Amino acid sequence: APKCGTTAMHGYLATHPGIAMSSRKEPGYWSPDLDRRDPVRDRTAYLALWDGAPEDALRGEATANYLRSAVAVPAILAERPDARFVVMLRDPVDMVVSFHAELVKTYHEDVSDLERAWRLQDVRRQGRRIPVECADPRLLDYARVCATGDQLERLCAIVPEQQRLVVLFDDLKRDTRSVYLQVLAFLRLEDDGRRDFAPANVRATLRSPAAARVHRSLPRRLGPLYEPARVVAARAGISPSRLINRANVRRGPSAPLEPRFREELAQVFAPQVDKLESLLGCDLSHWR
Question: Which of 28, 161, 214, 240 could form a disulfide with 39 if both were Cys (CB 3.0 to 4.6 A apart)?
Fold first, then answer.
């Protein structure tokens, strides 16, 4: 699921000699039912993500929306009945907080206050108040995106138990190496001795959402002038987009939720946590 440590795990596995992770994370090939920016839809282009990979290495990739997709897991199993799935999950409330911040940073969301964005869900399900730059309005349906109990239940119904492993973000943070070894054992691979587990995808917020929206809309605002300007900048070795993004991003934790609103979210997601407890056979009461 998104914002549950998939970027870090992709990076850790990519350096293991027995694994060939795709050269691009999140290609989205198996989830055509969910829109995303620049997905890989062509089969030849998808297979090319493993060009040069050792013949005997496991092929792997990480697209977080496969868990939410209605078609991804069945399609993967139809292609490879022996496929193995590592599912990464976290407290749905924390997931909402992090996912909303990511959408703001990537321009899909234009409401920087999470509680206001949460209150807009019903309106947005009707197709109103959708940001111009949002690739898929369903991303703004936070309650459904983070309904990981329902999503895991759907996966467990069709993926044999020996072909699935669920990793909790709490465990990944507390003892990364132990979780890494657990994943390697699941994949039937030997320990490569890795002990460096640098964090990835540290939470970031925009200094100015308004400036970000203006920047994001430049291609539309400039029309036919945009592409020539971008080419000239690239030839000069300049990336205005990268410079602007870097200047407008502040890394670090976001402000804590109001206790009242956090309690509301915990109640909304309590049935999802109940379902996860049942599926995983573990105590997640601390998520409530």
Answer: 28
What 3-state class would DSSP assign to 70?
Answer: coil
Burial pattern 158-173, b for ≥16 Cβ within 10 A else e, equals: ebeeeebbbbbbbebe
Q: For residue 15, which phi and psi values (nearest 5 degrees)?
A: -95, -5
Residue 22 CB contacts under 8 Å (≥ 6 apart), including other chains: 49, 50, 59, 60, 61, 62
CA 164-183-287 angle, to 5 degrees, is: 75
Residue 122 in tokens: 């019903």
User: Of 144 and 225, which is predicted with more confidence?
Assistant: 144
* Chain centroid to CA 62: 9
Query: Do 1 and 89 form a contact (C-beta atoms < 8 A)?
Result: yes
pLDDT digits (tens, 9 = 90+) for 45-66: 999 999 999 999 999 999 999 9
Q: What is the mean pLDDT of residues 214-241?
A: 70
Compute the 3-state secondary structure of the chain and give helix, strand, coil in percent, each to the nearest 5.
55, 10, 40
What pLDDT score was predicted for residue 204? 56
Instruction: Specify the higher pLDDT residue, 172 or 219.
Output: 172
